[in-house]
Amino acid sequence: MKKVPVLVFLIFAGLLLVISSASAINIKVEKVSSNEVWVSDLDKPVVFDLKITNLGSSDSFSFYNLLGFKMFPVGTVPISGAEVKEVKVEIIPLSKLPDSGFYTFPYYIRGSDSSEISENLTFKIINLESAFEVGSGDVDIESNSIEIYLKNKENFNFGNVNTVFSSPFFNLEKSFTLEPYETKKFLVQLNNEDFRSLLAGFYTMTAEVTVDEEKAKVEGVIKFIEKNLVTTTKKNFGLFVHTSVIEKSNEGNTIEHSETVIRKNIISRLFTTFSPEPDIVERDGGTVYYTWNREVGPGENFNITVKTNWLFPFLIILFLVVIVAVVRKYSESSLVLKKKVSFVSAKGGEFALKVSILVKSKGYLERVNVIDRLPPLVNIYERFGGDRPSRIDQKTRRLEWNFEKLSPGETRILSYIIYSKVGVFGKFALPTATGIFEKNGEIHESESNRAFFVSEQRAKPEDQ
Q1: Which of 110, 71, 106 shows the shortest CA–CA distance to 90?
Q2: φ and ψ of 144, to 5 deg
Q3: Out of 19, 330, 383, 398, which residue is the most buried by the measure of CB atoms under 10 Å away?
Q4: Domain extent for 188
């Protein structure tokens, strides 16, 4: 009789064990998603895609953790027996986590009978800046556009994004949505004048990305393709002052060595100026070579101005022609008249001048008549040196000397004194004397020079 209660107890315990086993949570959990990340700068959750298979009876399941992190879904998720359901689990860490690296998060799934299982989820921790990549195509000196891009390198949905792109070639601001692993591309129009002075090479492009008021700066590289292009233009203008302007323009994007050579002959070089001065001057026979060597940067111009002033040689030639004409005229004249004036002291204190005329014959001359005229405001002193005038006309203020003939080389000196009661200041000019003569049966005429007297000068008194 004592064995019966023991048997009953064992049977009852077995039934309880069977009932407990039948009602315990029985699910299979698979993680569908991969490479989940948590961006430490943002208040956005880490999202995991789970596939849950209920191997037991229908039940409702809840998700929780013991770390105090926010976790979704909140409440229970019903799953029928043998049903496979996809569940999106989101967590937002609240405590301090490492700045980067991987983190394993433990959590629990509980059934309605309080039975539960423990699972782990692993995610990568990044900052906002490391989530993006920015880049572009190449640029050359003739490019009118360039394609740039911003790439989301992570399995993270950033939603609405504002990005300001900046570089030496352009500036651009764009707003758009950016999903996991998505790349946004933009075609930017370029203005060649904005980068004409830049050297070929690599330049930094910066993208300032703003997500939920959090900013991150990402840098990329733009390659500026090397191109050599130097153009030369030459302009000429002016007649007497001839000007040449030579302009070297570097329209490429590399520093170019420029050599300019100008050739001048030994005559034109005397009247030529350069701006700037040449670096090298070389002479080869009757030719002179001028050389300029310069380094011209992208977008720079180098100008050489060459001025040849032909007005100077023209004036010199004109002067020489006049001199030759005067000398020729003098040398061809058979009667030479040379007039001079000097100051003399008068006893009465009047202003007095002695006028002398040198008359020289270069050939045999007949009927020679020398005429001189008195300037205004003066009178003639009736005393003469050398030959006395043949005629004095006070009305016309004219003096005349007549000679029947003059032999070759014969010289006569005619002189007279003029005076004035009124003092003279400054420059006093006397008219020219005229000679009229006959040579070989033809009448000829010659003139003397003009004589001047400046009242400041003082001459020694001469005997009268």
Answers
A1: 71
A2: -105, -15
A3: 398
A4: 129-224
